Amino acid sequence: MGFLDIRNVTKSYGQVEVLHRVDIAVEEGEFLVLVGPSGCGKSTLLNMIAGLEGITGGEIAIKGRVVNGVHPSKRNIAMVFQSYALYPNMTVGQNMTFGLEMHGVPKPARDRALADVAKLLQIDHLLDRKPGQLSGGQRQRVAMGRALVRNPDVFLFDEPLSNLDAKLRVDMRTEIKKLHQKLKTTIVYVTHDQIEAMTLSTRIAVMNRGHVQQLGTPKEIYDTPANLFVATFMGSPAMNIIPARVVMQDGVPHASVTDAEGTPRMLRFSQAAMAAWEGKDILLGIRPEAITDPEGADRKSGNIQSLPNRVTVTEPAGADTFVTMTLGGRDAIARMRADAPVAAGERYEFAVNMEKAVAFDPATELRIGG
Amino acid sequence: MSAVTQDTAVSTGRAMRVLIYLLLVLFALFYLLPLYVMGINSVKPLSEITGGNMMALPQVWTLDPWRSAWSTAQIGVEPTGLKPYFLNSILMVVPAVAISTIVGALNGYVLTKWRFRGDSWVFGLMLFSCFIPFQIVLIPMAVVLGKLGLAGSVPGLVLVHVVYGIGFTTLYFRNYYAAFPTELVRAAQIDGAGFFQIFWRILLPVSGPIAVVSVIWQFTNIWNDFLFGASFGGTSQPMTVALNNLVQSSTGVKEYNVHFAGAILAALPTLFVYIVAGRYFVRGLMAGSVKG
């Protein structure tokens, strides 16, 4: 049993079920990120934990206490909203202590809690201002301060960074991670940004169409995605999905992939279990950073396969150069060193790290081969 | 500033501009003519008016018509002046405006932030009440007031005006609160604020502009109402009914100067509300726009 238990939770609006039997146990101090495209049910799930939406089926328990039907204010949770939801008529200080006041905490204790949190977030000089006089980043801090001051069991974040500009978003991301490491609080965080999910979380739940597609550590989600959706949703640029056929050579399974000219190229699988798929069509998943120039290939990998192919387009992005080629009749992207000697239209010897490759069943879209 | 106006306005010659201003001033004077007639005739003796000098300035300035209209003029059969009726109107309009505005605000709050099954139907029906002519409800209203024992009293008039005003005030507040972020209400819920605490601490403090609109609208309508006052006023008739009784009296000499003074007296409170609240109205809008 976890600190926050979501057991078989469903949510329906009338006849339409929008969340299907979600089952997640969150340990104390964990940073769980719910990630998925819009309309996947992640915000609905968060609102159900908060008590802002009713639970159709199943149970949610915080610290072992089932909270179905318990009012949001009595669940000992705090929430940071996408729009910050600061009360416009109150000062920053009043905003942050409003919850304590409503819970009947006496004024001296409120002031002490406020002073502590304001110092922690470095907003002590803003306490007498109104939210309208603050910048986006400052409002974000105040919104977090309002949550922190309550000292709740669980923090809920609803896309807190999506209203900030790109640079501030990265800064605040680091800030939130620092805060979590310092305070060791339990956090459930909703975002549609897979980079936020990867960088912040201790565990990720990837959601789509009301189902949890995969629940695991960022590394598990990234390296061994459970299905095609998780594989393509996480990572930027997205994982290359290449139609291939499994063939045996010297008793070892290989993926046969056609290059730009239609010539089959053999890439040896690291997974021996792929032998069971001999002669069948599969989808091969290779992340862009697993296709490189030979000098840039991972030296620790035990399975670097050479792949000659024609370069379609090169896109220098500063730190890396993205190279597009045709593989299995589709565009595939390779992430090369910035100064890799490639030019559009020329042939080039790519290095594929097959240790990082995964395979999917085209019919079920599930990952195969262990 | 002026350069900007010249850039955007249709370019006109100096002669054209003079003509435009001349016309505007003329229209303004024409528009102010009734007020002028009322004003000067209320401060001259009756003999000067009946002598045919309606448009001229008074030869003898006097405030007697005002005193008479306020405290001694014959209203119906009693020589009480408009004073007691003015008081009736105040006693009616203040609670009626206050109650209808508060109820409208609560309705708007519930209809936008505490949605329930069929809420849009409820709102639609309340909106419908804005389109019902006064005359249709006279008889049912009389029956209800009779059953409640409020017929012919100030509380009865307050009830009538509150019931009639709720449709409008609800419409105002609902539309205003619809633009108010629901996340704030949710945040307050998590913070532990109850139904009325959220209303009192979060929504009302930012409702200034719409409250002023509601107050202006309700005050003007209720103060100026004649039909309900004449029908249900009984012994506590409002100012409008008294003014009618003063002006329409068919016995004795027509004291035009007193009538003019009485009419101005009857119009003063609404003028006052417009001037005072109108300023707050603009200020509220400006504050909102600067805050963004």
Q: Care to describe what's here?
A:
In chain A, 23% of the residues lie in helices and 36% in strands. Chain A is α+β, with helices and mostly antiparallel strands. In chain A, helix 2 packs across helix 3 and helix 2 packs parallel to helix 4. Chain A has helices at residues 42-50, 92-102, 107-120, 136-148, 166-183, 194-200, 218-223, 228-233, and strands at 4-13, 16-26, 31-35, 57-62, 65-66, 77-80, 154-158, 186-191, 203-208, 211-216, 240-249, 252-258, 264-268, 281-286, 291-292, 304-316, 320-327, 330-337, 347-353, 358-360, 367-368. Helices cover 74% and strands 0% of the residues of chain B. Chain B contains 14 helices and no strands. The longest helix of chain B is centred in the C-terminal third of the chain and has 36 residues, at 256-291. Chain B is globular, with a radius of gyration of 24 Å. Chain A binds chain B through residues 50-52, 71-74, 77-79, 81-83, 85-89, 98-99, 102-103, 130, 132, 146, 150, and chain B through 181, 183-184, 186-193, 197, 201-202, 205-206, 291-292. Chain A: Pfam families: ABC_tran, OB_MalK.
